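Reviewer comment 2.1 asked that we show a complete input and output for one of the modelled complexes. We chose the zinc ion case, as it is the one discussed in the main text.
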Amino acid sequence: MLGLVLLAAIVGLGLVLKASARAISGMLVLVWAALVIAHLPIPGFAPIGRVLGGSLAAWLGLGVLVALVLIYRKLLRAIRARAADPEPKTVPKPGAFSEAELDRYARHIMLREIGGPGQKKLKQAKVLVIGAGGLGSPALLYLAAAGVGQIGVVDDDVVSNSNLQRQVIHRDADIGMPKVFSAQKAMAALNPHIEIRPFNRRLTAVDAEALIAEYDLVLDGTDNFDTRYLVNAACVATGKPLISGAITQWEGQLSLYDPARGAPCYACVFPQAPAPGLAPSCAEAGVVGALPGVVGAMMAAEAIKEITGAGQSARGRLMIYDALWGESRQIGVKRRADCAVCGPGPAAGDGHS
Ligand SMILES: [Zn+2]
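Response of the prediction step:
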C-alpha cells in the first residue's frame, strides 16, 4: 500500500515543516488525484497502479468518505455557532425595531403604502395633540397604538363623570385626575415602546409657537374657538401641518390645514368665530358618544397618512360626517389671499388702507 504510505508521509512532512493545514490538505488532494488517475484503465498505467496498491473504487471511496466527514464537521460548527450566539438578533441597534415591535406593527408593515420604511417614519415622528377630550381620546389611542415615537398632549382640564360618555381614553377611576396624566397612563399601558409628553396646561399665545415648533404635525381637537385660532396661527407661523377636527351633536368635520404647502389655513376657511350661541359647544348642545370616535379616528388615520406619505391627504378638503343620516361628504376649500393669518398681510398689500 505505497499510496497510503505516500499520503501519510505528506502529513508527517507537513507537520515537521510546520506547513499550514491548507497547504497539507492541498498536497493530499493532489496526491489523491494522482492515485485515482494511476488506477484509471489506461494502457501502461496498470503496473504503476499495482505498485501504489488499492483499486480505483477504493481510492474514489476514500475520497468521498473524507469529503463527507469534512462537510459534516463544517455543518456541525455552523449549528454550534448559531446556538451559542442568539443575542445579536434580539438586541436592536439604536433606532431599529425590536422583535416585539416588529410583531406588534406587522399589520402595518405588510401594507404596501406603509411597510417597514413607513413604520420607521412613524417611530421617528413627533405629533402634538391639543385636547385630550372627545376627539383627542381616539386620536391619541390610535397614534399610540400605531407606534408614533413621540406624542405630546396638551390639556388643562380634569376628568369628570360627564366626560366618560365619549372620552374613552379615560376611566371611571380617573375622575378628578388631570386629563393629560389619565391619557398618558392609558397610552403607556397600550404601547410601552413610545414616549409620551403630557402638558397639563392651557395653550397660550406665549408658549404655543415654541411648543409646536418641536413637533412635525399637530392635531387639534379642542372645543373652543380661541384655542383653535391660537393653534392655527402658531402652526402657520412655524410652517407645521395642522389636522383640525370639530364635532357637535350628530355632525363632525375635519381637514388638514397647511398653507406652507399650498392648502388653506383654518382661518382661510373659517375667517371668523361664530357669534356666541350660534355654534354651541358639546356641553351646551349635546353630542352622540360615538361621533368623536369616528372623527377622532379619522384624524389619526390622516396623521398616519401624512407621516408615512400614504394615499391622498386631506389638504384642501373639508371632510364632513353626519352620523344622524349616516352620510359623509366633502367640500373643496382654498386659500384666501386676504387671510388675516396666512395671507401676505398689510405690508405686502396694494397700499390702500
Ligand atoms: Zn389662511
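The first strand starts at residue 126 and ends at 130. We note this here for comparison with the apo prediction described in Section 3.2.
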